[in-house]
Amino acid sequence: GSPRRLLLVSNSTLHGGGYLGHCQQHIQSFLGQKVKRVLFIPYALHDRDAYARTAREKFESLGYGLDSIHESCDPVEAVRKSEAIFIGGGNTFRLLKALYDNCLIHEIRKRVLEDGIPYMGSSAGTNVATVSINTTNDMPIVYPPSLQALGLVPFNINPHYLDPDVKSTHMGETREERIRQYHEEPNTPPVLGLREGAMLLVEGDKATLQGVTGARLFLRGKKPTEHEPGTDFSFLLIDSNPLN
């Protein structure tokens, strides 16, 4: 089996709480006591210094040191030496372009999938952990060389998944309709819609839904299904597209 360990969080901040407050116990359980320092990748936001300060303050309060990759003169070497990686949220296109520009796609994949170091993502950081960023909610403000992402799991995620508001007069597409449009294209993988407050824990070949809210699973050619925290999603790791 794979040594990969992933904590893929839908959102960094949950209404009524502070930065990573809703998942801090999950973070401590996930990183454990072996990890002393976390490598933070702040590329999804423009002000990397301020972003790193926010993340450092949070992780230090949980007992972990934090190094931000943008402060390193050699980002590839920083990844090679890292004990754990955390990629935060922001704009997914900006994030993925920076990962390509800094030659980090292969290095992060190797560290996570071969060396088994813990990888945590929130929002955009969760998007780039998947097959591609095709199901992000963000605007393409910059142009990465490819929409293909880290591929740490063989499916896609839609963070911040929103259910239709029955009282709304907005006539634009719902999130579900947009994912369905994605699945109209051939050979598209499953999409897991993670609501605010939900996260996916991947340990080797086992994937479990955690958090306080559920998720909605979209498989190409099938009706979407609803899932509660505790759901075993390990089958998504085995067969990326049952209908291929």
From TrEMBL:
Chief location: cytoplasm
Record flagged with keyword Cytoplasm: yes
UniProt catalytic activity: Dipeptidase E catalyzes the hydrolysis of dipeptides Asp-|-Xaa. It does not act on peptides with N-terminal Glu, Asn or Gln, nor does it cleave isoaspartyl peptides
SUPFAM superfamilies (alphabetical): Class I glutamine amidotransferase-like
Protein family membership: Belongs to the peptidase S51 family.
NCBIfam families in the record: PRK05282.1
Descriptive protein name: dipeptidase E
Protein's gene: Aada
